[in-house]
Design brief:
Blueprint (H helix, E strand, L loop, with lengths): L1 H13 L23 H5 L14 E3 H11 L1 H4 L27 H4 L3 H11 L10 H14 L8 E3 L26
Antiparallel strand pairs: 1-2
Length: 181
Amino acid sequence: MKLLTATLVMMLTASTPAGSETLPADTPNLGQAPPAGLVEHWNLSVFADGRGLPDGQGSVSTGRNLYEQHCMACHAVDGSGGSGDRLAQAGNTLTDEYPDKTVGNFWPYATTLFDFIRRSKPMTTPGSLTDDEVYALTGYVLFLNDLVTEDTVINKSTLPQIEMPNRDGFVDAWANEPMNQ
């Protein structure tokens, strides 16, 4: 066993990974650089201020149709909750003993809703919606919470401007830290 371990250590320390000529000199020379475009493809982060939102747009009426298709089975009619969480129509406030935490009364940023839907919905095929469909669903859920009107069009310019009622209900642990740009 010791011979096998020693042989593996020698092989690993003596080998240089393919493509390592493109890596900076101060790396441990493990693995290889990702193919061009891979990091950008998987970098889906959307920040509270809207950085990272893609191009596209969606209407509340389109979102209603998509909701009936992809969301109503779990979240029920008008986001009232079913096997999935309640999205709207909070019966109890956040200060009640058993609060209802809905998108409209709990979430601090509308951009977070877009990010969540894009990454994880629909439940059976996460990440399968187009950006336009995600904008439309975001708009419809915001409409269910009386945060936008029925004629609202959601896009990367309008979404960060929506003031969520609980925006100041969270502590920003990173407030004094410089953002990685």
